[in-house]
Amino acid sequence: MISLNVSERSSTISYAIRDVVEYARKLESKGDQILKLNIGDPLKFDFNTPEPMVDAIINAAKTNFNGYEDSLGNPELRKIIAERESKNNGKIYFEDVVITSGVTEGVQLVFGATLEPGDEVLVPGPGYPTYTSYATFFGANPITYRTIESENWNIDVEDLKSKITNNTKCIVLINPNNPTGAMYKKKCLEEILDIAIDYDLFIISDEIYDRISFNNSFVSPASMTDEVPILTFNGISKIYLAPGWRVGYMAFYNWDTLFEIKEGIMKELRARIAANSICQVGAIEAYKSCEKYVVEMVSKLKERSEFAYKRLNEIPGISTTKPMGGLYIFPKVELEKRWKDDKEFVYEFLRMKKVLLVHGSGFCPVYGKDHFRSVFLPTIEVMEDAFTRLEEFMKAK
Fold it and tell me: Aminotransferase class I/classII large domain spans which residues (predicted)?
């Protein structure tokens, strides 16, 4: 029998959002009904993909549009996205937009083209764990910079600056932030752009939730500079309610000095063949005709976010800041001597009350600890049920 060891590279990967599901499945196999508030998939609740998008991919499939797409993406879709970006964030050209299989593939591509062992990437703490996982996967060191809970999780710019070394390659921004729901202020972004210029860094700006803003305060750093190289990530997963279609994009701003890295990414895109062809047709329809669905969704999510914020703050031992955008809320738990850490808290709550959350340390062991992440995607009635169970759980301990 052949005996092989797992690669050191793959053994470093962890992903808290999905890892907690494995334990929930064990409970489900015993007959438990689990109320799942762990994953940002609107379609698990009372949201539906817009009908014109669905019709578009059905028609594409029926007319045999089922072959390989261009490696860089459907040309019509790339043109539409370039126009969208130019309108919202500053002039960008067709050649500067490529289509990916979701933002996650974009992270893999850019880190694969830029990082060598020992390099460093500045990532928000707390922040989406894919950035940490793939930086480590490519032999680099993810360095978390602090975001300040008492200031609605805004970025501690001085802390970020203090963590720059000769090995730092880029700064990752997630705006609106997952998991905290923070929306970064323009002044903060201006300061970070100045730092990027001073230290010759590029910026990754993850804007997958850009339209899900509850106070219309979203600002893209790409709209604020013509000097700093910025790689913007976005897509249709959240805004247009199609997470399973896996259609994202990368938009390259001010990358003239980084043309070799850009070409490296293009080589990776060609090597992996192409993103899904018919789903890109659905994305074209999303950007053309589905704006009203976005407005309706954001209105519904704003109401639910306000309910979650109010209700969670009523529970003894729980406190939370108010989300300004996105799909998530990130409350703090007074663990005291009841639980050794936030992971034990989440797993015990799941076992006792059958509600699945994600432990905050899964988003950053330093700045995310003693917290948990919940979506506010469910109806108010479902959230009331979940948070009542949480209140009972806290009082029992």
Answer: 33-376
